[in-house]
Structure formats: structure tokens, C-alpha cells
Amino acid sequence: CRSEDALRRIAHAFDTLFSDAVFDVIVCGGWTMGMVGRRIAIARSRRTKRPVRAPVVEGYSSPVFSEDLPAGSNTLLLTDVVITGKLTARLRDVVRRYGASVAGIGCIAIPTESVEADRSGVRALTVVDMDLQDPTQAQCPRCATHRKMVFNPIAAQM
Predict the structure, then answer these.
(1) Is 26 left (phi over 0), alpha (psi -120 to 50) or beta?
(2) Taking the model in full, what pTM does it have?
């Protein structure tokens, strides 16, 4: 997010990935995806001559929108990474409660396991091999060796 050129390239990649989708709202999971979503909205609005909005959603278990969605709108959901699909499912549910529909779901990266399971229905810019451990299923071997860290979005570091 520190480079305008990188943001434009990511936005262009998403715009190309969803060139077949018709939407008038881009629901962005978090402020960083909001930066990408606004650039897609500007490009799409200029090209189609129809306004596209890009509200930001904050929170995971109870997503909160920065603005209301108009009933009947077609939305594109964007997040950075999809691991289990729980967040995108929550966002889809909230969008539907507003009376809007989901035209597509996209992310920057998705693990190979999710693609192979075909459980997400998500279009991704990249598929990444990830060593995912579910601590509810078994003891995570990394939990005992790595200290717990939290991402600070203001400082943009752990």
C-alpha cells in the first residue's frame, strides 16, 4: 500500500479478473482492500459511465459497513486472503440482508487447499501453497515455538 503504482497494478488485475462481472458496489474487507477497491471503482466508472461505489467493511465476526448498501445493488466482494471462507460467507450474508446481490468474490491470495477443495467460489489473483494448521483439530507445532504477534495497521508491521 506504500506504492501508488502497485495499488494501480493490483486494481487493474482485479478489474481484468472480473471483466465479465457487472457490479455497482465493491465491498472491501478492510482499509487496505478499500484502497484497491476505490481504484477499481474509478476505472470501472470511467469505462462504463456508471458510478461504482466502494464501501469498506471492518470487523470479522460482526462486519460493520462504512455506509449502507442500496437494495438491489450488485456487489463485488474483495478481501486480501481467503483461508476458510468464513469472512466472505459473513460478508455475503450481510450483503444479502441489505437486499443486494453478490456478483463475485475476489481475493489477492488463496491457499492451494481451498482451490483443490473447491469450497470457496472465490477468484484469486494468486494461489499460494500454505502450511495451514487448524489448532482446533490438533496441536499446532508452531504455537509452541513462535511468539504470538498482532498486525498493527497504523504502523504497517507486526
Answers:
(1) beta
(2) 0.80
